[in-house]
């Protein structure tokens, strides 16, 4: 952010205004912005030729780009980053948007995942984008675990917690699993529950497997690893990611190139690659963070932007995150306060329920 402000401070008033107008027009329309368009918008009355010279200078600095020789300019990723860090004017949260988000507070859902699903749907509806909600892990002591074979490459694991909470997850078991090996895996796990949480259980089972590897069916040991990893570890985070509103990014008039990028984005989501890093993106500090294009490690291939904020429990510990993802020309000024408010809302909801 400091670098962006330093660059802006070195630009004269005309260059800053031309740059700001180009970015704002692009974010509004998605189209390249020409010099003649700017002559009608600038505070200072200058010729189109003068504006073209300024735009060429901004292009030389790597802040603007020209898609075609005779076309107008669009901001580069570096230009968008500088705009977001140095010129973005964040709006106050609209009352209508606030009311739609607050409506989730009145939900009768007793299930946290169901409540957060509704929050994600509301966030998607308000922003007209795709929403992401990373739900907190359930860390109550365990009562029982069971594996159920659904198909040769699909299995269900059922976890019953001491507080009555039940979680079901479908996962891909190691090749060659049989009903008997699944029963053996479940029996082994249940023998070591003793009121432990999933995190504690994983450590205990890891020690047991290391000591008794020869006594345990090899496939069952793999199944134990796969089943527990659904909740604790990288795969844990991927299973806790709620995505809503993908259809909002697939309008009928979306350009084919943009459609390809969006399909790539949701291919990433469906495969749930690197989703464990979603929460990591937020842990450098409180508040909303914006990741543009390749800055976004989760979806760098999709040409998308992610606006994300962590939410905390009553102890001010980060336990999850909410965000909105869309094309790089998101309306950042409107999206940022919505994501910020949603994160605070979720934190209050979970703190009240606990």
What can be said about this structure in brief?
This is Heat-inducible transcription repressor HrcA. The protein has 354 residues and is of the alpha+beta class. The protein is built from 14 helices and ten strands.
Task: Please tell me about this protein's structure.
With 354 residues, the protein is an alpha+beta fold. It has three domains: 85 residues, Winged helix-like DNA-binding domain superfamily/Winged helix DNA-binding domain (Arc Repressor Mutant, subunit A); 156 residues, GAF domain (Beta-Lactamase); 96 residues, Enolase-like, domain 1. It is built from 14 helices and ten strands. Strands 7-3-10-9-8 form a five-stranded antiparallel sheet. A three-stranded antiparallel sheet has the order 4-5-6. The chain is elongated. About 3% of the residues have low confidence.
User: What's the story with the biggest beta sheet?
Assistant: 5 strands, antiparallel
- Secondary-structure element string: HHHHEEHHHEEEEHHHHEHHEEEH
Number of domains: 3
- Based on CA atoms alone, the radius of gyration comes out at 25 Å
The level 1 CATH classification of the largest domain is Alpha Beta
Number of helices: 14
Count of β-strands: 10
Question: What labels would you give this structure?
Answer:
Beta-Lactamase; alpha+beta; 14 helices; Enolase-like, domain 1; 354 residues; 46% helix; Arc Repressor Mutant, subunit A; 10 strands; single chain; 5-stranded antiparallel beta sheet
Set out the fold topology.
Blueprint: H1 2-9, H2 13-29, H3 35-39, H4 48-60, E1 64-65, E2 74-75, H5 77-86, H6 95-102, H7 112-127, E3 130-134, E4 142-151, E5 154-161, E6 166-171, H8 179-190, H9 198-212, H10 218-229, H11 234-239, E7 241-244, H12 256-271, H13 277-280, E8 289-292, E9 304-312, E10 318-327, H14 332-353
Antiparallel strand pairs: 1-2, 3-7, 3-10, 4-5, 5-6, 8-9, 9-10
């Amino acid at each position: 952010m400091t670098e962006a402000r330093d660059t802006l401070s070195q630009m004269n008033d005309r260059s800053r205004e031309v740059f700001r107008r180009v970015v704002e027009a692009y974010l509004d329309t998605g189209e390249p912005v020409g010099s003649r368009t700017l002559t009608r918008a600038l505070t200072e009355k200058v010729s189109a030729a003068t504006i073209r010279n300024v735009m060429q200078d901004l292009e030389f600095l790597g802040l603007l780009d020209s898609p075609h020789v005779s076309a107008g300019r669009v901001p580069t990723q570096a230009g968008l980053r500088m705009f977001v860090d140095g010129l973005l004017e964040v709006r106050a949260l609209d009352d209508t948007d606030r009311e739609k988000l607050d409506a989730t507070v009145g939900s009768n859902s007793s299930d946290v995942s169901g409540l957060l699903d509704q929050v994600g749907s509301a966030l998607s509806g308000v922003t007209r984008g795709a929403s992401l909600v990373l739900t907190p892990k359930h860390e109550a002591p365990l009562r029982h675990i069971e594996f159920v074979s659904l198909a040769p490459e699909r299995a269900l694991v059922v976890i019953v917690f001491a507080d009555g909470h039940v979680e079901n997850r479908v996962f891909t078991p190691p090749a060659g699993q049989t009903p008997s090996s699944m029963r053996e895996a479940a029996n082994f796990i249940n023998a070591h529950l003793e009121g432990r949480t999933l995190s504690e259980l994983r450590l205990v089972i890891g020690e047991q497997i290391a000591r008794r590897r020869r006594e345990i069916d090899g496939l069952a040991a793999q199944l134990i690893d796969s089943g527990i990893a659904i909740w604790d570890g990288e795969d844990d985070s991927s299973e806790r990611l709620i995505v809503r509103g993908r259809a909002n990014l697939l309008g009928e008039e979306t350009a084919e190139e943009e459609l390809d990028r969006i399909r790539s984005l949701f291919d990433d989501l469906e495969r749930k690659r690197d989703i464990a890093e979603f929460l990591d993106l937020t842990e450098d500090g409180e508040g909303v963070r914006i990741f543009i294009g390749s800055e976004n490690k989760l979806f760098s291939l999709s040409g998308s932007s992610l606006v994300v904020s962590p939410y905390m429990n009553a102890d001010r510990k980060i336990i999850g995150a909410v965000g909105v993802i869309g094309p790089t020309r998101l309306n950042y000024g409107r999206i940022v306060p919505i994501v910020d408010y949603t994160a605070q809302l979720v934190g209050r909801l979970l703190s009240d329920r606990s």
